[in-house]
Specification:
Number of helices: 7
Radius of gyration: 18 Å
CATH superfamily of the largest domain: Vaccinia Virus protein VP39
Number of domains: 2
Strand order of the largest sheet: 3-2-1-4-5-11-10
CATH class of the largest domain: Alpha Beta
Shape: globular
CATH topology of the largest domain: Rossmann fold
Strand content: 25-35%
Structural class: alpha/beta
Oligomer: single chain
């Protein structure tokens, strides 16, 4: 999936996203599990809103994304903020030759863009292979509750001076899936509005599936929490957080 024009609008549209909470969650998990995190890999980094702050905490960060446009924005942002993140264009389903890391993260529902169980398994295996001995994997996903009860059938809209959008959510073809139909209206230098359309598909799975997929890839589950909590879990919260360790 290519984000195309969406990449250049992403940070404007996500200005209220809780990136600080994602960064804080990662740092807390590293501390709570006594991980000596010198090297971290961010899978599905988008425009670098988590990778860059983590790098500025003194961690050597490598970040990958499928979208060339997202990576261009991320690289420009990293240079402006005097960060030293290494960015590479790779498909998370087929990670290769990136070295070994103490921690791998995949946040902001990146895993939900995988189309089926086989793609999840392939991604988990690739991440396993890029972790060093006892390395830690942290990721989050939309819950089935969020997909089915909050997203599906909902319409969101924003009307700003330079950008507006209509975001409609439809039930996807598979269970626990959603299609995001996005129409953006962006003001040009000439003062007229140009329209861009994007279709984004997301899918989630049961808690049992994620547990089994992690264990079959060779991980030991450390914790499963929800909505940025480090110690509590509610199956019907909006977002699940998984922390797993590579078995020796």
């Amino acid at each position: 999936m290519s984000y195309e024009k969406f990449a250049y609008l992403y940070d404007q549209l996500m200005i209220d996203a809780p990136y600080e909470e994602w960064v804080s969650f990662v740092l807390k998990m590293i501390e709570m599990n006594n991980v000596d995190c010198k090297k971290l890999l961010d899978v599905g980094c988008g425009t670098g809103n988590i990778a860059i702050p983590l790098n500025k905490q003194g961690i050597s960060v490598t970040a990958v994304d499928l979208s060339e446009e997202m990576l261009l924005v991320a690289q420009q942002k990293s240079e402006r903020e005097d960060a030293k993140v290494r960015f590479f264009q790779q498909d998370m389903r087929h990670l290769e030759s990136l070295g070994l890391y103490n921690v791998v993260i995949s946040l902001c529902d990146t895993i939900n863009y995988l189309a089926d169980e086989a793609e999840v398994a392939s991604t988990f295996q690739g991440i396993f292979e890029h972790l060093d001995k006892s390395g830690m994997f942290i990721f989050d996903v939309h819950t089935p509750y969020k997909i089915n009860k909050i997203f599906n059938g909902s319409t969101y809209a924003y009307n700003g001076e330079e950008i507006s959008y209509i975001w409609e959510c439809f039930q996807g073809e598979e269970s626990n899936s959603v299609e995001h139909d996005l129409s953006f209206f962006v003001q040009t230098d000439e003062g007229v509005y140009e329209r861009f359309d994007e279709l984004h598909k997301q899918r989630t799975y049961s808690l049992t599936f994620y547990k089994n997929a992690l264990e079959e890839s060779g991980f030991e589950i450390i914790s499963i929490t929800s909505d940025f909590s480090t110690d509590t879990f509610n199956e019907n919260d909006e977002r699940w957080f998984f922390v797993a360790k590579k078995l020796n």
